[in-house]
Amino acid sequence: MELDNKLFQTYSLDQTVEKQTEKLKAISNRYERDKKFWSTAVNNIEEKIKMMKQEHSQLSLEAHECANSIPDLNKMVFAVQALVSQCEDLKAKYSEEQAKRRKLYNQVQEAKGNIRVFCRCRPLSKAEVSAGCATIVDFDAAKDGELGILSGGSAKKTFKFDRVYTPKDDQVDVFMDASAMVISVLDGYNVCIFAYGQTGTGKTFTMEGTEQNRGVNYRTLEELFRISKERSETFSYNISVSVLEVYNEQIRDLLAASPTSKKLEIRQASEGFHHVPGIVEAKVETTKEVWSVLQAGSSARAVGSNNVNEHSSRSHCMLCIMVRAKNLMNGECTKSKLWLVDLAGSERLAKTDVQGDRLKEAQNINRSLSALGDVISALATKSSHIPYRNSKLTHLLQDSLGGDSKTLMFVQISPSEQDLSETLSSLNFATRVRGVELGPAKKQIDTSELQKMKVMLDRARLDSRAKDDSLRKLEESLQNFENKARGKDQLYKTQQEKIKELEGQLELKMALHSQLEKQLLHFSERLKGREEICTSLQQKVKELENKLRERELLESSTDQQKVKDLEKKLREQVRGSESHSITLQHKVGELERKLKEKENNSESLLLQKIKELEDKLKEQEQQLACALTVDSTASVRGTPLEGRCFVRDELMNEAEHHILRSSNSMNRPRSQGSISLKGNDSLHDTRRKRLSRNGETENNNIIVSTSVIDNKGRQSDPPKPFVRVTRTAKPVTNAQRPFTHNRTSRDQVQGIKEKDNKKRIWSR
Ligand SMILES: Nc1ncnc2c1ncn2[C@@H]1O[C@H](COP(=O)(O)OP(=O)(O)OP(=O)(O)O)[C@@H](O)[C@H]1O
């Protein structure tokens, strides 16, 4: 019990310890989790505080800056307003100045003459030098635009031009003077630059040039792009290029992808604007594109010709640069043309020298060049009719030659004495051209753009309104900025408050953290104490278990020994009882036999006794009858009839018992008396001994013997109240059973016999 108690206590202690450990584990886990959480939270808060402090300092700086910058901003706004108004004024002044500049420029141009002639003399070619050709050109007064031709040895013929270029002057020098004329096309004037002269005098060299020494064409376009870029804020330009060739009075598009048989004709689209429908207008935006376009035209010119130089000298190469300009300030749109023409060779061919196609070519060239001369003559004489349509060349140049346009002529001459006549002829033609007085150039305003200009004007108004709005918005944004600054101040204050709150929270959490650590230490100490108790208890339990095992071992060995001894004794007793039962059975058999004999002898004696008893009975009946008469008188006094009957029955029973007792007393001493003396007593003794040892009573055993086997000899289930008895009765050996069984059967037989005797007695 102690062990059990101890075990139970240890078990309960274990359980409590386990629970406590679990609780402690949970607490420690929770603590660890909380610790981690709080440490991360603390770190986060610290970082946030740092960030907020930084933000705070930044915000405070910004707020200070904002506060400081408010008067500056006000100043800036005023300055911006002033600048806007100044800008408007400047724009107006600029446009006025531009107009004035253009007017003055044109006046200068007009003063110089709208047709300007530059004379350029090529150097002697190698062939000419090797041939020992002498130079007939005098460049002494070239800077003053004077050129002397030494015709024969006598006299020097002088020619005056706008510029005279010596063979030493390069392409840059030539273009520098031409560029002023070129810029006019961007201002909306039609311009024509053409090179006139004898074959091989350097027309193509001046206009096209080479890749290393690029000519007027390329440099013109380059300059146009440069100036258009410069003016990109005030003007937008759209530049396109067409390359044509007039050969044998036929126009050929040199930029066309494939040569067509269809003849290109000149059409008048509007007043002062002629064009060739169907020609390619290549839009160029870079100088690289220009060069590729010019190269394409140059290569196309050579197609179908055996001798490139010959072909180029027999056709007019015309480069048309179309400029669409838009003044972004006033919305003025212009559409102007710049013709750059490399004319065919101007040499006069003798009719007898050439025939056939060559003659036709020469005639066509002469016709076109004389048409050009006629046009110039007409322009010089201010004729009402200018014969532009006499040739394709003049027809194409109609818009850009004379009238409202500006013209520049390069008269190319050879220095060689061999080409003297042709040089003089060219110089005379050039002098004639230079003598032409043109009226003031007229700007080619694009009338179709008038509507657009109106729209532009409206847009400009809208823009000015939008600017006003933007100014208002600027003011509003300034106010917003001020408000933001105030809001930032407010935010700064709230953030400071938040920081304080967070610091307080942090302190609280730190205190909680330290408290939790203390709790953890306390719990860990308790846990250690419990663990020590637990280990000591476990040791005790182990000791007790060992003791218990030892005891169990000892007890089991002694019990086994006892059981073995008892078994031995029991076996011996069983053997003794078996031998005894066998002797008893023998005795019973003898007794039964003797009984039968005695029954036979006693029957006569019984009959006598029965008679005696009958007599006695009769006497008693008589006495009873007398007594009944006495009782009848007594009944009158109140004795119940039932009571009398009872007395009678009692008497009868008594008589019966007497008879039975007598009969038994006669039978039993002989039949059962010896058994009770010898067999039963000894059996009872042994049984009593066994029962007394087992703690049972004799009666119980009797009950067992009667309860286990019924009258019919069948074994029935024992009644429930005797369950314990039947269990204790089990050790009864098999040797005893026949005895009990015999005894009961014998009792039954005895009972039956007694009943028969009674019946017999009563029947008698
Ligand atoms: N100013 C110059 N400096 C150096 N060389 C020049 C100059 N002018 C012309 N030449 C050279 O003279 C030669 C003939 O020139 P170019 O072909 O330009 O003459 P052209 O008048 O165009 O002839 P064509 O009428 O046959 O076309 C070329 O080889 C060219 O390089």
Automatic annotation (TrEMBL):
<feature type="compositionally biased region" description="Polar residues">
    <location>
        <begin position="661"/>
        <end position="679"/>
    </location>
</feature>
<dbReference type="Pfam" id="PF00225">
    <property type="entry name" value="Kinesin"/>
</dbReference>
<feature type="domain" description="Kinesin motor">
    <location>
        <begin position="114"/>
        <end position="436"/>
    </location>
</feature>
<dbReference type="GO" id="GO:0007018">
    <property type="term" value="P:microtubule-based movement"/>
</dbReference>
<keyword id="KW-0175">Coiled coil</keyword>
<dbReference type="GO" id="GO:0005524">
    <property type="term" value="F:ATP binding"/>
</dbReference>
<feature type="binding site">
    <location>
        <begin position="197"/>
        <end position="204"/>
    </location>
    <ligand>
        <name>ATP</name>
    </ligand>
</feature>
<keyword id="KW-0067">ATP-binding</keyword>
<protein>
    <recommendedName>
        <fullName>Kinesin-like protein</fullName>
    </recommendedName>
</protein>
<comment type="similarity">
    <text>Belongs to the TRAFAC class myosin-kinesin ATPase superfamily. Kinesin family. KIN-14 subfamily.</text>
</comment>
<dbReference type="InterPro" id="IPR027417">
    <property type="entry name" value="P-loop_NTPase"/>
</dbReference>
<dbReference type="InterPro" id="IPR001752">
    <property type="entry name" value="Kinesin_motor_dom"/>
</dbReference>
<feature type="coiled-coil region">
    <location>
        <begin position="42"/>
        <end position="114"/>
    </location>
</feature>
<keyword id="KW-0547">Nucleotide-binding</keyword>
<dbReference type="GO" id="GO:0005874">
    <property type="term" value="C:microtubule"/>
</dbReference>
<dbReference type="InterPro" id="IPR019821">
    <property type="entry name" value="Kinesin_motor_CS"/>
</dbReference>
<dbReference type="InterPro" id="IPR036961">
    <property type="entry name" value="Kinesin_motor_dom_sf"/>
</dbReference>
<keyword id="KW-0493">Microtubule</keyword>
<dbReference type="GO" id="GO:0003777">
    <property type="term" value="F:microtubule motor activity"/>
</dbReference>
<feature type="coiled-coil region">
    <location>
        <begin position="464"/>
        <end position="557"/>
    </location>
</feature>
<keyword id="KW-0505">Motor protein</keyword>
<feature type="compositionally biased region" description="Basic and acidic residues">
    <location>
        <begin position="752"/>
        <end position="764"/>
    </location>
</feature>
<dbReference type="GO" id="GO:0008017">
    <property type="term" value="F:microtubule binding"/>
</dbReference>
<feature type="region of interest" description="Disordered">
    <location>
        <begin position="660"/>
        <end position="764"/>
    </location>
</feature>
<feature type="compositionally biased region" description="Polar residues">
    <location>
        <begin position="731"/>
        <end position="742"/>
    </location>
</feature>
<dbReference type="InterPro" id="IPR027640">
    <property type="entry name" value="Kinesin-like_fam"/>
</dbReference>
<feature type="coiled-coil region">
    <location>
        <begin position="581"/>
        <end position="630"/>
    </location>
</feature>
<feature type="compositionally biased region" description="Polar residues">
    <location>
        <begin position="697"/>
        <end position="709"/>
    </location>
</feature>
